[in-house]
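Slide 14.
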Amino acid sequence: MWTGKLPKKNTTYGIREILRHRGKRRLILFELYVCGLPNEKEAIYRALDKWTAWETEFPVIAVAKALNILKQRKQWKRVIQVAKWMFGKGQGMTMGTFDTLLLAFDMDQRVDEAQSFWNMILHTHERSISRRLFSRMISIYAHHNMPHHIIEVFADMEELGVKPDEDTTRKVARAFKNVGETEKQQLVLNKY
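Slide 15: predicted structure.
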């Protein structure tokens, strides 16, 4: 248990306790600075800047944990604001953060923003996009009944050699069915 004092011996256990406490402190500061604010971009950005002002390094792990907390609470507008702020600082450009932001766009009914963000990901990280991100984008388009967009994403997926999972395969097959291309629907179902 952390007592606020450094251990007398430099043991591994003591260092873990110090690091664990430091992470908790950052999350508590995040709660104090950010969670009680209105959903105004400028107020959120100011609070986040205050939160990180005294840090010598950008707290990527603390921000990622904060994003997960906001995701669990289903505070999608706040997830979008925090992720965009982090990207504006040149930090956190990971596939996991991209996935969280795409999910937040979907849940906040911002399909256009999701689409433009997806295009940025596709053009910037073309060869390293995970199956999970392709599946997320196909799910967004399926959720909003956009079969032509599903087919476009699937074409990019095939072109890059990424194999879809079962759920994605069903969504793609359904999209082909919805646009009246039953031969391609069967082809997808048989192939994957």
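Speaker note: The first helix runs from residue 12 to 35.
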